[in-house]
Design brief:
Blueprint: H1 2-7, E1 14-17, H2 21-30, E2 38-41, E3 45-48, E4 68-69, H3 72-80, E5 87-90, E6 94-95, E7 101-102, E8 105-107, E9 112-115, H4 122-128, E10 131-135, E11 157-161, E12 165-169, E13 176-181, H5 187-191, E14 199-206, H6 212-221, H7 224-230
Parallel strand pairs: 1-2, 1-5, 5-10, 10-11, 13-14
Antiparallel strand pairs: 2-3, 3-4, 6-7, 8-9, 11-12, 12-13
Length: 231
Amino acid sequence: MTVVAARELRDGEVVFVGIGLPNLACNLARRTHAPHLVLIYESGAVGAAPERLPVSIGDPALVTGSLMVCGMADVFQLFLQNGRIEVGFLGGAQVDRYANINTTVIGSYERPTVRLPGSGGAAEIALHAQRVVIIAKLSPRAFPERVDFVTSPGRRVKRVITDRGVLEPDGPGGELMLTALYPGVQQSDIEAGVGWQLRSRPTLECVDPPTRSELQLLREVLDPKRLYLKG
């Protein structure tokens, strides 16, 4: 998932980076095919160039060598809402057939069975980033036909990168459809992971596996567990 997400990025793009797999993907891309990515973190680090994998949006590694450090309000108002963010990565507890994301509640809003962390900046990213990429593991629970609550609308989502393949909307705001499979994965494996009758393109792409160089970077340079062990 991390490698496929990294390959989604083009050199020089302005990316709103979240912690987790998006953080890994962006820093992998910066060390391979996209050295001039402009990484913007919610905490206010603009043009960050961390020498090691940052463990949070407040990691001091984001400050050294960055183009600018500003307040969180400036990140959202001057960059995101001003249309300067080209790519935004998102995830969620639920993603439905139209790429709407739920990070608010499971069940009804008034009487939820689970109350989730909420939007954070996800709704703003979904509305204002020029291109949105979702990273999420497939399961019928995580990919229902309809989310319990629309936290972040899916109309700007271009790709959904899963642990088995790639989904893309059938036109802007359209229904998600299967477009690419990972090596060794069958179409039926993807269909079993969503809660609706998943359509697919007539010809499916086969995603190239990670290269030895990509795996080495992830395991030996960008593995967050190594940083904790060193500490």
